[in-house]
Amino acid sequence: MNKKENMEFCPFCRKRHNIHQVEVEQKDLFHNQEISYLAQYEYCETTGQQWANEDQLKKNSVRLKDAYRKSVGLLSSEEIKSIRKKYKISQEALASILGWGKKTITRYETVSIQDQVHDDVLRKIGEDPLWFFDFVTRSKDTIDRKLFDKYTTSVSSIYQNLNFEIAKKSLFLEYYYLIKDEKVGNVQVNPNRIENVVNYFAMKIPGLSKNKATRLLLLADFMHYCKYDFGITGLAYTYERNYILPKGHEVIFNLEGIHMTEIMENDHSMFRIEPNFTSEMSLLNKIEINTLDAVIKRFERLNEDDYFDKLNSAAKSTSGKALDYIPYNIACDLELTLN
């Protein structure tokens, strides 16, 4: 029995004193099933009496029904509420776009239990934002334009967050079986550090292209390793398509902290990295920042293509086939240092 105290008038001993709020395990018959749940009551220690006030009666009713829902595999009232809040939509508005009675969702969150068909719809909406979006678009002629824009923005934001999470998980999966050795610069891959490095370069180099950012990542890792025996990001690099590319390069630039935009230049589409000024460089220490600055400075006085032609040639000679990992010390062997 859990207890909380509150100074109130007791209807049994007819005095004002500390009334305990207690939660007790209770069993009630509901829909021909014995349901066990935690019920909340007021309790007077003087008389040993317990009772439920109006608010507790409502709470106990919801708790009983939620316990029943759980026993038969239906969404709880809180789960229904969280689905609605996920899309920032009111009870009546959600009921309206689903084509249900306007008080249906309100009842499901308070006093009523949904049937299996309605539960399936709500569950699918919660799992798949496109289902919600489909219902919204069907109702666009009856929805206020501002609300329509609000709901579609919610769906877009959810998918963006899903993509960010997928990118991070995909990167971890790519590196799951790689141990901390020379292939990854003796450090474990860290998506947040990758975001920090890319954003630092983007803030220092206006109009930073995706291709150049990829090269800078490689330079920063290899050159830091040559001087300190450790890389910065934990990325592994492979030789494929006649270039050295980081393993997982398909998802790196989809990470949440990296803002990439597509532009047209000379009738060609290209991607640029926009500075993310809200991103903190908290994961980079001063020595690593110095490495990034040195890499930027070196690029200002060297021909980028000539430099990478040499690096790619050296990588090709060490790689017997595509997707072989390029050892970090290749840069050290070529004396590609920061000096």
Give a verbal description of the structure.
With 339 residues, the protein is α+β, with helices and mostly antiparallel strands. It has 3 domains: 2-72, no CATH class; 77-158, 434 Repressor (Amino-terminal Domain) (Orthogonal Bundle); 176-333, no CATH class. It is 49% helix and 18% strand. The chain contains 13 helices and 8 strands. It has helices at residues 54-72, 77-86, 91-97, 104-108, 116-127, 129-138, 145-174, 191-204, 210-228, 249-252, 286-301, 304-318, 330-333; strands spanning 2-9, 16-30, 33-44, 49-51, 237-240, 243-246, 259-265, 268-274. The strands form 3 sheets. It has a 4-stranded antiparallel sheet, with helices on one face. Strands 5-6 form a two-stranded antiparallel ribbon. The chain has a two-stranded antiparallel sheet with strand order 7-8. The longest helix has 30 residues, at 145-174. It is elongated. The model has no long low-confidence stretch (mean pLDDT 85).
